[in-house]
Amino acid sequence: MKETILLFNLADKQTRRKVELALFPLKLRLRYIPKDQYNQPLGALAGLGDVSPCEACYEGEELPDTMLVFAGLSDARLNQVLSALRRSKAGIFPYKAILTPTNQFWTAPECFAEISKEHELMHAQAPSAPAENPEKNLPKN
After folding, report:
1. C-alpha to C-alpha distance for 112 and 30, rounded to whole angstroms
2. Measured over all CA atoms, what is the biggest interatomic distance in the chain, rounded to whole angstroms?
3. pTM, to two decimals
4. Contact in structure between 41 and 102 (CB atoms under 8 Å)
5. Any idea what DSSP says for residue 60?
């Protein structure tokens, strides 16, 4: 499978351009997925031959935020992509997934819902931020 990034709900042209410029040197296939294809299995969108596409068009809501799905990338290539995206200053993309044997049959809304749950759990368990002024918590002599 060709290294592919599926991009969902990336409507802002300036952000798109920054992403394209950042990833162009890596020679990846970028697929901007229109909303009417959100009911297609992720594997079909990525070009996996053993995942059958769906016939119907999606008529639901737009995803709440941008989502990126990485397909066919090694760990090293994924790190290159993430680094390039950070350097591009295209913005923060908190909703990212790697195509797996499990999620290749999911639709975009199903994948987003799962990533969103994981994202909330991660941030709910994260330690609280340090105090704004740590010196005010120090004992006085």
Report:
1. 18
2. 73
3. 0.83
4. no
5. S
